[in-house]
Design a protein that fits this description.
The protein is of the alpha/beta class and 226 residues long. The protein contains ten helices and eight strands. It has an eight-stranded parallel sheet. The protein binds pyridoxal-5'-phosphate (PLP).
Length: 226
């Protein structure tokens, strides 16, 4: 049962500062409604088209997080409602988010996505690239994007030592950026890491947002969206 699973995760998070993002990709809106009715409010989707299709079907107080790679030309579709874009990996993307958020008179929250996994295919910034963004004039003049932390996807492995190393690496980036660029900004506080298979380790290593899909909704069937 989705409600039991959701309550289980909420209980796991009791006494921590971390929150749950229920990753709803590939699941039909009826199941998302079930998660909402059980108290879930932070939902994560990884595809713009799917997010845009589901959002109007569900209650307006859901905090939508985009957790997948975002192409600049698709920002306009999510700008009217998205709460947090967790996958910011370029200045160009940040500039487009700023532009689209301004059009809608909104402030969109964002996380800088770091490359922490061994796999080459996973998206994300290096520390040097992130600092280049944060030091740019373009970034400093932005008023409609608020960076609230960092995000990372660890290697798909059950090697605990490796996972811990990667989570620590991400936390290290967070702490460095916090001290250097965001010391006066309490809103910069999120470390988004940990999924169904590795969220316990991620919490131990300081995660503030776990992104959990299959452990709540069951296995995904990529053939049958909604
Ligand atoms: C799908 C996805 C998750 C959730 O994965 P599960 O293993 O189903 O918990 C978390 N983060 C990202 C970026 C994802 O794409």
């Amino acid at each position: 049962m989705i409600s039991d699973n959701l309550h289980y995760f909420e209980s796991q998070l009791q006494g921590t500062k971390a929150r749950l993002v229920a990753v709803t990709k590939t699941h039909p809106v009826a199941l998302l409604q079930e998660a909402y009715d059980a108290g879930g409010r932070l939902f994560g989707e990884n595809k713009v088209q799917e997010l845009v299709a589901k959002q109007p079907e569900l209650p307006a107080d859901i905090e939508w997080h985009l957790i997948g790679h975002l192409q600049t030309n698709k920002v306009k579709y999510v700008a009217p409602f998205v709460h947090t874009i967790q996958s910011i990996d370029s200045l160009k993307l940040l500039q487009e988010i700023e532009r689209q958020a301004a059009k809608h008179g909104r402030v969109i929250q964002g996380l800088l996505q770091f490359h922490i996994a061994a796999e080459e295919t996973k998206f994300g910034l290096s520390l040097a690239e992130a600092e280049e963004i944060l030091e740019s004039e373009a970034y400093r003049s932005m008023r409609h994007v608020q960076l609230t932390g960092v995000m990372g996807v660890a290697t798909n492995t059950d090697d605990e030592q490796q996972l811990r190393r990667e989570f620590r690496e991400l936390r290290g980036y967070f702490e460095h950026l916090k001290a250097r660029y965001f010391a006066q900004q309490p809103a910069f506080r999120e470390i988004s890491m940990g999924m169904s298979s590795d969220y316990r380790l991620a919490l131990e290593e300081g995660s503030t947002l776990i992104r959990v899909g299959s452990a709540i909704f069951g296995a995904r069937n990529y053939g049958a969206v909604s």
